[in-house]
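Exercise 7. Given the encoded structure of a 173-residue chain, write a plausible sequence.
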């Protein structure tokens, strides 16, 4: 069963390094082959700088700056060792990015380094069209879920579990 996670890390995506940190993490070559990185409304080669620039131009470089979504697959659905399945994951990523790319810059990185093939999506919270921040309301959340489910059906993936993952910063002792 595919799993869709919306990651909300407390205070993690609020600082001025959020763009560079998250893009660097998701595009790391040990996790993500170069042909598995794509962007819509943003060039993957300079995604962090481009996203940060949009936020600065619209003077929205405070608060939450990025939205992170992870879509993972069981090996029975898409196998990380099969080139055709990795290609399918790239196509799925491209289609899913289309949901938000009309208003927001979005980057997708297909990771092949774990047992489960998975895609990280990084979305700028500031619209490149008008500078409005992504509202993150429930209506959009449910529409996005339905959209993802519809994208997955042609790939033979008929079930999707939804998780919101709140991660707390590690506490030092």
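Solution.
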């Amino acid at each position: 069963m595919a799993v869709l996670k919306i990651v909300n890390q407390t205070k993690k995506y609020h600082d001025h390094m959020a763009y560079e940190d998250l893009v660097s993490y998701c595009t790391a070559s040990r996790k993500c082959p170069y042909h598995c990185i794509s962007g819509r409304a943003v060039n993957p080669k300079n995604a962090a700088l481009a996203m940060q620039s949009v936020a600065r131009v619209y003077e929205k470089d405070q608060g939450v700056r990025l939205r992170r979504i992870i879509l993972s697959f069981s090996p029975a659905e898409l196998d990380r060792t099969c080139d055709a399945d990795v290609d399918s994951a790239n196509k799925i990523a491209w289609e899913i990015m289309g949901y938000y790319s009309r208003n927001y810059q979005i980057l997708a990185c297909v990771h092949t380094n774990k047992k489960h093939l998975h895609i990280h999506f990084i979305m700028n919270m500031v619209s490149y069209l008008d500078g409005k921040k992504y509202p993150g309301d429930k209506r959009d959340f449910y529409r996005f879920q339905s959209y993802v489910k519809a994208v997955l059906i042609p790939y033979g993936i008929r079930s999707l579990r939804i998780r919101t993952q709140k991660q707390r910063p590690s506490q030092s002792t």
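Remark. Residues 2-163 form a domain with the BirA Bifunctional Protein; domain 2 fold (CATH 3.30.930.30). Students should compare their own answers with the one above.
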